[in-house]
Each structure stands twice: as structure tokens, then as C-alpha cells.
Write a structure and sequence with these properties.
Helices cover about 40% and strands about 15% of the residues. With about 280 residues, it is α/β, with parallel strands linked by helices. It has 2 domains: about 50 residues, no CATH class; about 160 residues, NAD(P)-binding Rossmann-like Domain (Rossmann fold), CATH 3.40.50. Helix 4 packs parallel to helix 5 and helix 5 packs parallel to helix 6.
Length: about 280
């Protein structure tokens, strides 16, 4: 084959296809800049045809625009605005903000779902630390409601909406498994959730029920709780953990995808703490 003919065969015919940027410009569309991650974690993790994003929180100028819990520090309207801002760049089918500890709102949310769903993952709730003498019992009741009661209410309302073989997936922790001053309530809830998960798995079959128990995860909530001590905690964990890095939301997301897609898993608790339980504090 002569060189001239070879060049003709390799040459593209017709106009070059427009780039994605050119096509968006022609349509008059401008994509918003992606938010910068808050922690040392991957922004996305893909498993099969599922893409899980981390760090997608309502932000402006790299600052958290909404901080707090709906029904506590934030009212419902602020929660709606936060959910809309966090999901508008994700092409989410829908979003809804409500106080998940309110039984009527929770029941209405599941009742109004237009069709069956594959999985429900509950990450609501936050740890409660405090010595007995210092406990605010209103906050204690709120913590119990936000963990045990919410798990029960979600389970009862979601069962008829989750397809057989689908998953109810709850979040717990590992940090309070060792007794320590100030961990009385956190330890009790930590111990209760695995037992609740195992029993619900038997009761709600063929829907599967599992629990992810995380240690320290580098999230905006961790940043809020630790404030100016966050970087010190990160450095401490990098030196102490067997994995020599900090666990991030993408790690938890990858485990959640595995638990959701592996239909042999039910009634179990899956730890993800980078080996934190294996080393002395």
C-alpha cells in the first residue's frame, strides 16, 4: 500500500464531532463547578453500573451552607433547601427533606413512593457522648429515637416498598465497643443495633437487613465534631491504623454497594474501621 493511499484511509471524513464542551456551549448550558472534597477521600467510587458519590453536601464557597439536623438545628424548609442544593448537580430523580424521627413524616414518605425500590440505606442519627452526671435526658431520648426507634420505624414502613431480595441497610459504629467514661449511651446503642439487625432479618424475610459499623470516617460531620482537632485526629489515625490512611465515605459506599448487591448477605454486621479495633488507643 503506498503512503498516499494509507494517509487517505486513515484520514477522517467529514467534520470532526463536537466536543462535549462545544455542544454544551451551543445549547447555552453551563455546568456548575464541582464542589471540592472536604476530606481525604475519593469523590466517587463505581461498582458495576452503580456510582456512589461522597462529599456531596450543600456548600457555597467551599463552606457548608447548612449545618445541623432537620427538626433540631434546622427547620423543615431549610432541610428542603439543603437537599435540593446537594442533589441538583447529581441528576437525582427526586429528593425530599423531612424530620426522619417524626413517625408521621416517615410513614408518609414511604407511602407516597410511586413504586417498589431496591434498597433503603439509613445514615441518620449522630453519636451521643457524655458522663451520666452531665447527661441531658432530652438529648438522650433524641439519640435513642434517632437510632433504635428510627430503625424500627423505617423497617415497618419500608418492608412493603422494598422488593424481595432488596436491602434495609443501617449504619452503626465500632468506637463505643470498649467501655470508657462518657460512652455509656453510645455503647448501649452500639450493642443494640447488631441484635436488632439479626432479629429483623428473620422477621422481614425475603427483604434482607444488614448493618454497617464504622469507626472514624472523614466526613463533614467529623469536621464539625472535632473542629480544630480534625487534622490532629487524621494524623493520629494515619500513624496508628494498619491501613496507614483514614477511612473515607467512598470506603463506606463501596461496602454498602457490596452488601446491597450480594443477595447472600443478611442479618449481619460489617465493620469498616481500617483495623482500629485491632490496635490500642
Amino acid at each position: 500500500m503506498n503512503t498516499s493511499l494509507k494517509k487517505q484511509m486513515l484520514k477522517r471524513e467529514g467534520p470532526q464531532p463536537a466536543s462535549a464542551e462545544q455542544r454544551l456551549s451551543e445549547l447555552g448550558m453551563k455546568l456548575p463547578a464541582p464542589p471540592e472534597p472536604f476530606g481525604t477521600y475519593a469523590e466517587a467510587v463505581q461498582t458495576g453500573n452503580l456510582l456512589f458519590l461522597s462529599g456531596m453536601v450543600p456548600t457555597e464557597s467551599r463552606g457548608a451552607q447548612f449545618i445541623g439536623r432537620v427538626g433540631a438545628e434546622l427547620d423543615v424548609e431549610a432541610g428542603r433547601k439543603a437537599a435540593h442544593r446537594a442533589t441538583r448537580e447529581l441528576d437525582a430523580l427526586s429528593s425530599m427533606a423531612f424530620d426522619a424521627t417524626d413517625s408521621d413524616s416517615l410513614e408518609r414518605f414511604f407511602r407516597n413512593l410511586p413504586t417498589t425500590i431496591d434498597h433503603v440505606m439509613v445514615t441518620a442519627g449522630r453519636p451521643y457522648y457524655g458522663r451520666l452526671v452531665d447527661m441531658d435526658f432530652a438529648e438522650v431520648r433524641e439519640a435513642i429515637n434517632g437510632h433504635l426507634m428510627m430503625a424500627l420505624q423505617v423497617s415497618r414502613n419500608a418492608t412493603d416498598k422494598v422488593r424481595p431480595g432488596g436491602t434495609l441497610l443501617f449504619m452503626g459504629g465500632t468506637g463505643a465497643r470498649r467501655p470508657a467514661v462518657g460512652l455509656a449511651l453510645a455503647s448501649a446503642l452500639t450493642a443494640a443495633l447488631p441484635a436488632l439487625t439479626a432479629n429483623l432479618a428473620l422477621e422481614l424475610t425475603p427483604v434482607r437487613v444488614n448493618l454497617i459499623a464504622a469507626g472514624f470516617v472523614d466526613t463533614p460531620l467529623s469536621a464539625e465534631l472535632l473542629d480544630d482537632q480534625l487534622e490532629n485526629r487524621r494524623n493520629q489515625l494515619r500513624a496508628m491504623l494498619p491501613i496507614r490512611r483514614v477511612v473515607g465515605p467512598a470506603d463506606v459506599a463501596a461496602l454498602a454497594v457490596h452488601v446491597m448487591t450480594n443477595t447472600a448477605l443478611t442479618g449481619a454486621t460489617y465493620d469498616i474501621d481500617g483495623g482500629q479495633q485491632l490496635v490500642a488507643r
